[in-house]
Write a structure and sequence with these properties.
210 residues; two-stranded antiparallel sheet; globular; Rossmann fold; alpha/beta
Length: 210
C-alpha cells in the first residue's frame, strides 16, 4: 500500500514563464531545468495529486532601477509553463525580483501599470492562504527561474519569515543556464544562508514521509 503523502510540504514555482523558457522569449537560455519540470516533475506531481503554488512576474515598465521591459501581461512571454491542473490558485504576481514588490494594475494587460511598491502584508496573506503558515509546514520547496535572481530573493524572503526553505536542484537554473554555475551557487554562501539544495529523490522521500 502506498504511503500517505506528507501534507506539510509545499512546492512553489517562481517565474516559470515563457519569457524564460521559449526560444522566442526575451530572456531565453537553454536550461535543463525547463525540460525536467515539464517532463519529469509535473507528471510525477500530477500522478501523486500534488499541487504547486506559483509566483510569476509582470516586468513591464516603469520599474525604477531596472530598465527591463518583459513578461508583459497579454503577451506570450507572460504565460506560465505550470499546467492549470497542478496549480494552486490564485497566483502571486510580483514586479521586481523580491516577491513583496507589487504595483497597481499588476497582471492586467488592459491598464497601465503603476510604480512598484512593497506590500509585505498582502504577500503574507497570500502565503497564509495558498502555502500555509511557517509553523504549519515541514518545508517549502522552490523551483523555477532563476537560482541567481528571483528564486534566490524568494528563498531569502521566506527564510526571514520562518519557513524551512529547500530548493529542488534539478528544478532550478541560473540565468546563464550553466550547470556548473548552478552547482557552485546552490552549494555555497550566500545561497546556503537561506536555503538547502535537495534533489528529486530527496523530495520524493519528504513527500512520502509521515
Amino acid at each position: 500500500m502506498r504511503k500517505n503523502l506528507n501534507n506539510k510540504v509545499r512546492i512553489i514555482s517562481v517565474d516559470f514563464q515563457k519569457e524564460f523558457s521559449l526560444q522566442s522569449g526575451n530572456h531565453y537560455k537553454s536550461r535543463k531545468s525547463v525540460g525536467f519540470i515539464k517532463n519529469t516533475l509535473v507528471p510525477y506531481l500530477r500522478k501523486e495529486n500534488i499541487k504547486i503554488a506559483e509566483i510569476i512576474s509582470d516586468y513591464r515598465q516603469p520599474r525604477p532601477g531596472d530598465r527591463d521591459d518583459s513578461t508583459r501581461p497579454g503577451e506570450l512571454g507572460y504565460e506560465s509553463e505550470i499546467p492549470d491542473d497542478v496549480k494552486i490558485k490564485p497566483q502571486w504576481i510580483k514586479c521586481m525580483n523580491s516577491p513583496i514588490w507589487i504595483r497597481n494594475n499588476i497582471g492586467n494587460p488592459n491598464k497601465k501599470p503603476g510604480i512598484p511598491y512593497q506590500d509585505s502584508e498582502s504577500f503574507t496573506k497570500w502565503l497564509d492562504k495558498v502555502v500555509g503558515k511557517p509553523n504549519s509546514l515541514d518545508a517549502v520547496i522552490l523551483i523555477g527561474l532563476t537560482a541567481d535572481c528571483c528564486v534566490f530573493c524568494t528563498s531569502q524572503e521566506l527564510s526571514w519569515r520562518g519557513y524551512n526553505v529547500k530548493v529542488l536542484s534539478e528544478g532550478v537554473a541560473t540565468y546563464s543556464g550553466s550547470e556548473k554555475e548552478k552547482e557552485m551557487i546552490l552549494s555555497n554562501p550566500p545561497f546556503t544562508n537561506w536555503a538547502e539544495a535537495i534533489n528529486l529523490s530527496n523530495l520524493k522521500k519528504m513527500l512520502k514521509s509521515n
